[in-house]
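Q: How do we represent a protein-ligand complex in a form that can be generated token by token?
A: Start from the inputs.
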Amino acid sequence: MTIYRADLHIHSVLSPCADLEMSPVNIVKRAAELDLDIIAITDHNSTLHGPLTRRLAEERDIYSLFGAEVNTREEIHCLCLVENEQQRQLLQTFIEENIQRIPNNPDVFGYQVEVNEDEEIIQEINYLLHAALNKSIDEVSEFIYSIGGIFVPAHVDRSKYSITSQLGFVPPNLKYHALEISRNTQVADFLRLNPIKPETGFIRNSDAHFINQIGSITTELALVDLSFVSIANALMGQNGSYILPHIDS
Ligand SMILES: [Zn+2]
Ligand SMILES: [Zn+2]
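Then emit the structure tokens for the protein with zinc ion bound:
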């Protein structure tokens, strides 16, 4: 059993709201400086920086998950994480087939660029990645489970783009691996207001949009081995892997 420190919610320069410094090269460099063990680039409705980030992360012994922060039809942000390139492509296709195509205006919303390891622009995405999909949170959850991914409603306590801000409650039948809670709310306070499955695990991540935010808050996972399956098990608190309790201040 080993403890790993994870930041599973990081935006790259592909996200219109993220800083242009947030290239995969810079993100991985910063994660290595901070000794993070596990990271995930979760851009708004895009997985495109996953493969480059993983290659760079492997060189520094960091485990990098593929994923995206998907915006559901209800405008609920959800972290969708997958293990391999085949699943990443399925997720990318699902997003591209279901996202509402609104043209991006970079002057208003920011640039959405894919870059290479020399930080040269490969492509600019011309539709707004912050838009919602034509799929409900249940449908997105179902899809992620069907491809073997991890599904985590994001920043559930926030007053915008969260399950509580958009629905007012956590649907009792929604399938998820864990919930992400922001640094501002103690788990006990959230539970007092929101009746949910008692076995629910909570993770905290930086939701970094700027380099100096990476790893500013993390989750410690006790894993039987460093693998996608064990990370999923930890979020569910099963098969010997688990989330270490957060020290709420
Ligand atoms: Zn979000
Ligand atoms: Zn985010």
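DSSP finds eight helices and eleven strands in the chain. The CA atoms of residues 8 and 245 lie 16 Å apart.
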